[in-house]
Write a structure and sequence with these properties.
The two termini are about 35 Å apart. The protein is globular. It has an eight-stranded mixed β-sheet, sandwiched between helices. A three-stranded antiparallel β-sheet has the order 4-5-6, with no helix packed on it. A three-stranded mixed β-sheet has the order 7-14-13, covered by helices on one side. The protein is α+β, with helices and mostly antiparallel strands. Strand 4 and strand 5 form a beta hairpin. The mean pLDDT is about 90.
Amino acid sequence: MRSSVYLAGPILPAKEMIREAHARQRIGLPSVYLTRTQLQKRFRLSRTGAIASEGNLAADPVALALGLMRQAQQLGARLYCPYEISDVQAGRRSVLVSTADGFEIQACKLILCTGYELPKIVPTAGHRLASTWAIATRTQPSRLWPEQSFIWEAAQPYLYVRSTPDGRVLCGGEDEEFVDEDRRDANLIKKATLLASKLQQLLPEIDTRPVFRWTGTFGQSATGLPSIGAIPGKSNCLAALGYGGNGITFSMLAAQLLSAAIAHRKDPDARLFAFR
């Protein structure tokens, strides 16, 4: 469990950050506004203000995914891997999925969870792709900030920072809205240098020289919300498409919304996340 610090910036200066903190408190989110002095005292960070929140979780994504799949198997799920899906035939009572090498899987319902790689049968309205970059420093546990909280800033492009169990600092951001892989990869050294420079300004006690650097593509939506629900025009086909790096949060929403849809139960939030 970790705390999280959302730093004031160009998008949300200190006065707006106070309003944001109050809005979060009204809906029950454990958040508190910190003044410049309070922020410096608690986290050794220098900004005009910030929101500190509790109840955040850090997880190894690979270990988490494998654990969930093992749990699913124990509950009776069968895993087929790796297969490339080449065709989906939606019928009134079932769905037939064909793979590129001729294998077929028949199911009562099909749920697509493909991230930013949208299958042809999924509506693309409001969906766009972007590129992002990240770095990791050497291990330096004695130099890390108090509470090793997650750090975000209200800026565009934004910066995010967190630590790893062995004491590295991960820093990412500098997103740009293009998806050309060659252009994205060619910017890796430039973007890594920029991230290290911004990290140095934020955490001057840290050795910010990158030991690892990487880049990737991710999906976004016009509203920032995921697309979860029945796929229009495709009987018995549903999808859970999360955007913007909020996969764990959105997957919990998807579990609730899709289980309700399959069981023909009404969910008050279904229309909010439905495909348009």
